[in-house]
Design a protein that fits this description.
This protein is mainly alpha-helical. Helices cover 48% and strands 0% of the residues. The protein contains four helices and no strands.
């Protein structure tokens, strides 16, 4: 079963446009405003991004974090952030 999109008649379109023009809180966009719009794809950008690096860990460490399934890198990051926070509160940089 195919569906057919039926657009408004000229009279209906004029009535819709006239009603929209009467709304002070939501005026119709101009042709220039519509032309300048671009679709956004993907996740919104974060204020603070992570840095990609290459690092080596012992097999035991990787096995432990990966055994928890998806999100193992985020869990590892959380553990490291907790370590940094504790060290900074103690004034250590070891």
């Amino acid at each position: 079963m195919s569906r057919k999109l039926i657009g408004p008649t000229d009279a209906e379109d004029a009535a819709i446009t006239a009603a929209a023009l009467q709304d002070p809180d939501n005026p119709p966009l101009s042709d220039n405003e519509l032309a300048s719009m671009r679709p956004r794809r993907g996740r919104p950008p974060k204020a603070q991004t992570k840095v990609q690096i290459s690092i080596r860990y012992s097999p035991e460490v990787l096995r432990f974090f990966k055994s928890g399934g998806k999100g193992w890198q985020a869990r590892m990051n959380s553990v490291l952030l907790e370590y940094v926070d504790k060290r900074q509160r103690k004034g250590r940089h070891e």
